[in-house]
Amino acid sequence: MRLQGTNLIVVNVLASYVRILLVTGLTLFTSRWVLAALGQDEFGLYSLVGVLIFFILFIGNVMAASMQRFYAYAIGQNDPSEVQKWFNCAFVIHGLFALMLVLVGIPFGIVLITFLNIPPDRLATCYWVYGLSIVGAVWTMLAVPYIGMFHARQRIFELSFWNSIQALLIFVLAGSLFRLRGDLLFYYALGMVGIKLVLDAVQMLRARSLFKECRLHSRYWLGRSSYYSVLAYSGWQLWSGLGAILSNQGLGILINIFTGGTKANAGYGIAGQVNSAVSGIGVGVYQSAVSEIFRLEGAGERQAMIKLALRTSKFIVLLSLVWLLPLCIEMEAVFALWLDNNVPEYAVGFCRVILSAYVVNGFIMGYGAAVGAYGKVASYQSVQGTLLVMTFPLAWAAFKLGATPVQALFSLTFIAACCNVYCVLWVKKKLQVPVSRWLREVLGKCILCGVPSFLLGWWVYASLEPGLLRMSLVFVLCAGCTLLCAWLLAMDSEERGFCMSKVRRVLGFVFQPKN
After folding, report:
1. Please, is 410 exposed, middle or buried when counting C-beta atoms within 10 Å of its C-beta (0-12, 13-18, 19+)?
2. Rg (Cα) of the chain, in Å, rounded?
3. Nearest 5°: phi and psi at 343?
4. What are the distances in angstroms from CA 434 to CA 368, 416, 447?
5. CB under 8 Å, gap of 24 or more: what pairs does 373-378 form?
6. Where are the alpha helices (DSSP H) in 339-443?
7. How many C-beta neighbours within 10 Å does residue 492 have?
8. Is the dihedral of CA 445, 451, 453, 456 positive or negative?
9. pLDDT at position 48, please?
């Protein structure tokens, strides 16, 4: 039986959650081994050069999100030829961007690297690492139209499988660093790019075999209106994406400049890896729902689309709080255990701030998908992008006024809150959804679940002596309290009934009599 609608979303969410458990477990060892093998200076150097690649790759990510909207909208209209037209349009645009990446990205990175605080004897390796990253970025950009079709067709469970394979291969690569001799930073960068190239190629071939729309036909390449629609839509997304990059990766450059070395970037890199692992839960929920949100809008079901957008935001935050609350409470102990007391400077503080900003962003992730489905995004993305860009000068001003790196990073959380306010007001104006509905169905319910869970965890933290027992109790009680409060206070009768029906179905399958 072909999965569709809510059933497919549930399967995708479960697959994403399993992937997060596996990837998080592997990442705990991978990051520890890479940090131990490279050392804090080299690890910080890799994180710093990686910042430059994020500046380049954000173009591809914005285009991927844009194309996903056009794919899913055409799928909602049940028009295969229209889907194939958008695929060909996406391939041509990404091919041109890949060419621009080679022509502009290489000299841009070479010039920028000379302005950073990098030891002179490591400049040559930095150039090699950057060059390898450019190769990976070009290949990734060409793969985006194919991988985007998995998202549009809501085959997130398959993407979760390939992401798990990638995490496993990186885990093996990290372990092999202890057996290698020579420039380990170069070997690590080469291995990372090689893994990405192989897995992207496999997914491209897989998409071509699964989806008949993933075929290149020159008759679709000359449609100017298609390119104009994509570029008009993605142009504003691009501005918002630039703001997001500056509000996250640009801060890594500021940290390097104002701290005068790469050790603080090691802490920022560790915090970023933790954020990627934990935020993957929310990203999995978002990716599982966003194509359905686009499809519902394309099918003219506006109210169903809004309802799903609100639920998406609510469950992103609730599922994230299960992990985030105990992690933030026991952050020092977790890092000391994880990194064998080799914790980079500022890593704990950076991680807490970045995770707080992620939770704030989670409150409107569903609304962000609804805005994309609506399509007329010029006013929204221009203001959101401007707000996000302000993170960079705010952090710079904080550094100039004598703030510590952790204090300067709070600009992330402040700007995220401002973006939330604007998003909710924009949706009220354009989609006629009252602010009170978001406050009642998302923010209020998440606060009702988060506050008692945090207080319970903090009470255990303050009452017991440091140790494995306290850390285990904090995680178990916080997670249990969050889930219980979510069931009793955050979920409505329809959601609880749906969950119970799925549980009964699973139990019936497991315990059914064998003939």
Report:
1. middle
2. 23
3. -85, 120
4. 16, 21, 19
5. 373/69, 373/73, 373/293, 373/294, 373/296, 373/297, 373/298, 373/305, 374/297, 374/430, 374/431, 375/69, 375/73, 375/233, 375/297, 376/430, 377/233, 377/236, 377/237, 378/236
6. 347-362, 365-374, 378-389, 391-400, 405-409, 411-431, 435-438
7. 11
8. negative
9. 65
Q: How many residues does the chain have?
A: 515
Q: Are 310 and 445 in contact (CB under 8 A)?
A: no
User: 197-201, long-range: CB within 8 Å, 24+ apart, which pairs?
Assistant: 197/135, 197/136, 197/139, 199/162, 199/165, 199/166, 199/169, 200/139, 200/140, 200/143, 200/147, 201/139, 201/143
Mapping DSSP onto H, E and C, the string for 419-481 reads HHHHHHHHHHHHHCCCHHHHHHHHHHHHHHHHHHHHHHHHHHHHHCCCCHHHHHHHHHHHHHH
> Phi/psi class of residue 513: alpha, beta or left (left: φ > 0; alpha: ψ in -120 to 50)?
beta
Which residue stretches of the chain have pLDDT < 50? 1-3, 515
Residue in the structure block whose two tokens are 């469970």: 157
The DSSP element (H or E) to which 324 belongs, if any, is helix 302-329
Structure token digits, residue 514: 């064998």
Closest CA to 305 of 380, 375, 232: 375
